[in-house]
């Protein structure tokens, strides 16, 4: 009987051990599905890190390129500044301001990379006071340009300037010349539009229905003898083709001594 009792107890112990093996859960040994999930999460994290690293590299390269472009531009503009001062009697302050504005806003405003123009109204109307400067070699092309009726005397300098409507004065500041040649309704002048690039002249070049001041760049015969406009940038008729060809999308700085 004792022998049978020991055999029964052994059998019971074996069954209990087998059931324990089946039902036992070790928290330190995760299941296979959990292992797979963790592996996929680790892979995703690695991919994200690689992408972030690539984006950072791209931004760094972009900054380096921008710095290189700005350095090249500043070097070339510095050369042009010196050449123009040697060749002409242009106002030093006006030239420096125009080149620095061009450097800062060339890409933002979509300005032409070929020419910039400075209307130096500190000179008299009988002088060639419109300076068109080549941004490649520093060559300067000079032309006559009229000032507004109430800005100064016939053939004289600009004494007053304004960006307001109905003043008949010369507008001041930085402008972008348009690319499309149009015709005025009354006198049928061919013209290029002008757009103000600063807060003070933002309404100059806009149509009157939008609360703007209708100012354009156009030819007129009175410019030859020192005549005055109603505020437009008027040039000699014989210079129209040469000026229009150079100044499309170009920066125009109207310097009145301000």
Fold blueprint:
Elements: H1 2-23, H2 32-87, H3 92-105, E1 115-120, E2 130-134, E3 140-143, E4 173-183, E5 190-196, E6 216-219, E7 233-235, H4 240-247, E8 251-255
Parallel strand pairs: 1-8, 6-7
Antiparallel strand pairs: 1-2, 2-3, 4-5, 4-8, 5-6
Short description:
39% of the residues lie in helices and 17% in strands.
3D structure, described in words:
The chain is of the alpha+beta class and 258 residues long. It has 2 domains: 30-87; 91-255, L,D-transpeptidase catalytic domain-like, CATH 2.40.440.10. Helices cover 39% and strands 17% of the residues. The chain has an 8-stranded mixed beta sheet. The protein is elongated, with a radius of gyration of 38 Å. The termini are far apart.
CATH class of the largest domain: Mainly Beta
Q: Give the name of the CATH architecture of the largest domain.
A: Beta Barrel
Helix amount: 25-40%
Total of DSSP H or I helical runs spanning 4+ residues = 4
Structural class based on helices, strands and sheet pairing: alpha+beta
Structural domain count? 2
What is the mean predicted local confidence, pLDDT?
Answer: 84
Q: What is the fourth-level CATH superfamily of the largest domain? A: L,D-transpeptidase catalytic domain-like
What CATH calls the topology of the largest domain is L,D-transpeptidase catalytic domain-like
Strand order of the largest sheet: 3-2-1-8-4-5-6-7
Flag low-confidence runs: 21-25
Write down how many β-strands occur, each being a DSSP E stretch of 2 or more residues: 8
Radius of gyration of CA atoms, rounded to a whole number: 38 Å
Distance separating the two termini: 124 Å
**What order do the SSEs take from the amino end to the carboxyl end, as H and E?**
HHHEEEEEEEHE
Beta-strand fraction estimate: 15-25%
Shape: elongated
């Amino acid at each position: 009987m004792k022998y049978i009792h020991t055999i029964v107890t052994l059998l019971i112990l074996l069954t209990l051990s087998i059931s324990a093996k089946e039902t036992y859960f070790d928290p330190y040994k995760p299941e296979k599905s959990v292992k797979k999930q963790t592996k996929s999460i680790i892979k995703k994290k690695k991919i994200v890190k690689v992408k972030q690293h690539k984006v950072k590299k791209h931004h760094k390269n972009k900054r380096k390129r921008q710095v290189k472009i700005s350095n090249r531009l500043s070097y070339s503009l510095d050369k042009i500044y010196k050449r123009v001062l040697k060749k002409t009697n242009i106002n030093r302050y006006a030239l420096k301001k125009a080149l620095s504005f061009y450097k800062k806003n060339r890409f933002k405003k979509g300005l032409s990379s070929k020419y910039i123009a400075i209307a130096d109204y500190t000179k008299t109307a009988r002088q060639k006071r419109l300076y068109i400067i080549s941004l490649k070699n520093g060559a300067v092309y000079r032309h006559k340009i009229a000032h507004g009726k109430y800005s100064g005397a016939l053939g004289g300098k600009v004494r007053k300037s304004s960006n307001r409507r109905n003043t008949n004065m010369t507008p001041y500041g930085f402008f972008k010349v348009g690319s499309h040649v149009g015709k005025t309704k009354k006198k049928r002048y061919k013209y290029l539009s002008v757009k103000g690039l600063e807060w003070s002249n933002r309404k100059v070049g806009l149509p009157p229905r939008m609360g703007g001041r209708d100012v354009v760049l156009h030819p007129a015969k009175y410019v030859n003898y020192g005549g005055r406009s109603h505020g437009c940038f008027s040039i000699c008729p014989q210079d129209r083709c040469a000026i229009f060809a150079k100044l499309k999308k170009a920066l125009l700085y109207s310097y009145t001594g301000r």
